[in-house]
Amino acid sequence: MTQLTRRGALAFGAAALATPALAQPRFPDRPIRLVIPWPAGTSSDAQLRSLAELAGKALGQPVVAENRTGAGGTLGPMTVAQQARPDGYSLTQMHLSVLRRPWMMRTPQWDPVRDFTHIIGLTGWLFGTAIKADSPLQSWADMIAYAKRNPGKLTYSTSGIGTSNHLAMETLQEQAGIELTHVPFRGANEGVTAVLAGQVDMVCDSSAWAPFVESGQMRALSVWTAERASRFPNVPTLKELGHDMEVTSPYGISGPKGMDAGVVRVLHDALKAALFDAENARVRGQFDMPLVYYNTEDYRRFVVERVEYEKAMVRRLNLSLDG
User: Fold this and answer.
1) Which residues form the signal peptide (predicted)?
2) Which of 223, 238, 260 is the last residue of a domain?
3) Which of 3, 86, 199, 239 has the fewest Cβ atoms nearer than 10 Å?
4) In a domain, 229, yes or no
5) pLDDT band at 321 (very low <50, low <70, confident <90, very high)
C-alpha cells in the first residue's frame, strides 16, 4: 500500500481546498443586462442609466441598459422573470405596476413575490399634473370646477392603465366627485407631447413635464410629493389641495427567482455605491427623485407588504385588464 507522507498529505489537502475556488468563476465575468421598462429619455431611464454606468465601474464589468417597453411598464420585468437565467446577468427595474398588474388579470401571468429575487430599493418619482400654458384652467381649483360642470370632457394622460399615477387619478376623482377621461400612453414623454399638441388636456405623470413648466410652455397644477418640490416652490401638493395623498411610487432592482445569495450581495453593494454616488444624486436631483433606499432584506419585506396593499386597491377600485 502506498504510504502518504505528512508533507504529501498537507500538499494534497491544500490542493483539494483550492480546487473548488478555482472551479468557481468570479462574479461578474461578463456584462450584465439591466432592462428598463420605459422609453429612453424618461426620468427613470436617466437615473437607471446613470446607476448602470456607476455600478459597472464597481463591478469591473459593464452594466448594459436595455429599454423594453410595453404592457404598462411590465413587459420588461415579466420577460426577465420568465426567460432569464437566475445567474445575476439579467436584472430589471421593479416598480409598483409590476406588483399591482397581476391582480388586474383574470389569470395572473406572474407572482411579484415568488417569481423575482428582489435586490435593492432605490428611489421614486416626482409626479404631478401639468397643462399647456395657454389653457384657460389657471389652477387645480379651476380644473375641479370645470370637471364638475363637464363630466368626462377633460382628458388626462398617464404612462399606462394600472400605473401608480393612473390609480392616483382614479382615487382623486373619487375624492373630488369628478369624472375625467383617461388617455394612456407608453411613457410620460408621450403624454407631454400630446398635451403640448393640444390632443390631451393634462398630463398626470412623472416629471417629464418639468422642463416645459420651467420654460413656460406648460403650467403645473399640483405635485404629489409630501412637500413642495424645490424646483417648483409655488406649486401646491395634493395634501395642500385637500387630498390626503402622497404618491412617489418607489422602485428598485430585481432579478429572476432563485439567484445565489452571494451574487445578490455583490450586486446590492455595487448598486448601493452607485445610488449614493454624487453623480447619481445629481441625476436624481435633476428630476426631483427622492432617495428611497432599502437593503435586500428590507426591500423584500417592502415588496411583500406592498403587494397586499396593491391587491386591496385593485379590488376597491374594481380595476381589470380583462374588459
Assistant:
1) 1-23
2) 223
3) 3
4) no
5) confident
Tell me which DSSP letter residue 1 carries: -
What CATH number does the domain containing 266 carry?
3.40.190.150
Residue 260 neighbours by CB under 8 Å, 6+ apart: 86, 87, 88
Report the CATH number that the domain containing residue 158 is assigned in CATH: 3.40.190.10
Q: Select from 205, 223, 241 the last residue of a domain.
A: 223
User: What is the extent of the structural domain holding 312?
Assistant: 32-124+250-317
**E strands, the chain, where?**
32-36, 63-67, 90-94, 116-123, 127-132, 155-158, 181-184, 202-206, 218-223, 251-256, 291-294
Distance between CA 45 and CA 40 in Å, rounded? 6
Q: 134 and 101 in one domain?
A: no
Residue 220 neighbours by CB distance under 10 Å = 23
Measured distance CA(190)–CA(203) in Å, rounded? 9
- How many domains does the chain divide into? 2
Please write the tens of the pLDDT for every residue from 251-292.
999 999 999 999 999 999 999 999 999 999 999 998 889 899
Q: Give the 3-state secondary structure of residue 305.
A: helix
Tell whether 290 and 155 lie within a shared domain.
Answer: no
In this prediction, residue 160 carries a pLDDT of 85
Closest CA relative to residue 61, chosen from 266, 252, 242: 266
> In Å, how far are 66, 76, 108, 110, 311 from 105, measured between CA atoms?
27, 18, 5, 10, 11
Question: 290: which DSSP letter?
Answer: P
Can you give the pLDDT at residue 88?
98
In a domain, 110, yes or no: yes
Confidence of residue 72 (pLDDT cuts 50, 70, 90): confident
Global pTM reads 0.79
Does the N-terminal peptide bond of residue 28 adopt cis geometry, omega within 30 degrees of 0?
yes
Q: Do 215 and 267 fall within a single domain?
A: no
Instruction: Tell me: do 134 and 218 sit in the same domain.
Output: yes
